Amino acid sequence: MVTAGIAREQGFALNALTIDYNQRHRRELESAKQIAGELGTDRHVVLPLDLRAFGGSALTADIDVPKDGVGEDIPVTYVPARNLVFLSLTLAWAEAIGARDIFIGVNALDYSGYPDCRPEFIQGFADLARLATKAGAQGGEFTIHAPLQYLGKAEIVSEAYRIGLDPAVSWSCYDPMPDGTACGQCDSCRLRLEGFSKAGREDPLSYA
User: Is 183 annotated as a binding residue?
Assistant: First the structure.
């Protein structure tokens, strides 16, 4: 949400891509649709891609989401090569519509240690985009923007309010409760709550 808000602030027209990969936290799909509407995207595509067929993650298989705090190891909520898959699909759509700027909300400070959030990955994909596309072969360049890359969660929360976005429509929890509330214990909830606390703000989401 914040990444898209920054792109809009910089004068870009927005085309939003959401991947419905049959994730455990499907509540985020509803949030994405609401955010796309409020940000005034030119188009919002929800693309089905059932990664449960692969499994290998607590978000795509019958593996418990850890609730014991953010550790140093890559957690089981890591979805194999997820951001690589997502960016590849985004690149394909960008080339199809003639767009050359791709925005992604990865963060390498307050995060769970996923390898596909690192700056080296973003730079590597930018190089790959040039090699993998007709546009690149013809001298075109794709720019991968990661405006949240070096921001802490508190700074991201502050950016949301500065831009005038409503955090209540965003979603972070990996393991929503049956009543629709966020669990409050998964890595994503813990990092989000810490960010709001450090920013001196109250998270408007409801937690179990």
Answer: yes
